[in-house]
Amino acid sequence: MSEQLTIGELASRTGVATSALRYWEELGVLPAPARVSGQRRYPPSTVGLVGVVLLLRDVGSTLREIKAFIASRSPTGDGWRELYQRKLTELDQRIARAQVARTAIAHGLACPHADLFECSNFAAGVAALLSGCSLEEAHSQVHSH
Which helix (H) or strand (E) covers residue 87, if one does? Predict the structure, then answer.
């Protein structure tokens, strides 16, 4: 039988807490390992799988998305491409929102009023948000004149 890792050894090799590894197993992100005298025993390949989970987490994937990504793997399939495309679209939307937020904050910092609440542009932006506009629409309305 090839080398098997305990949960402590897997944690040590990956830098992931044993509690997180158990949680990922409970959610089905990691497959349930074999048991020897009740203790988890992982194949060495699990180290790479944990690395995949960490990479996908670091690019903004949820555990549910990571589970779907791992489940989509097959020797002939490319279901992962659809998952990646959806994540790319989501990231593009988040980046666009962050850029709008950054511009709004920069304009706030450049405001000549000592008290931002006295600024008519700030008040107009708040009113636009309250009327249902997105931050981007509100900012556009305020700065379009």
Answer: helix 79-110
- Mean pLDDT, to the nearest integer, of 106-123? 90
What are the boundaries of each domain within the chain?
A: 7-71, 79-142
For 42-61, the pLDDT digits (tens) are: 999 999 999 999 999 998 89
Characterise 70 by phi-psi region: left (phi > 0), alpha (psi -120 to 50), beta (else): alpha
| CATH numeric code, 7-71 | 1.10.1660.10
Q: Against a cut of 0.85, is the pTM above it? A: no
Q: In angstroms, what CA-CA distances link 133 with 28, 72, 108, 124, 144? A: 40, 38, 18, 11, 15
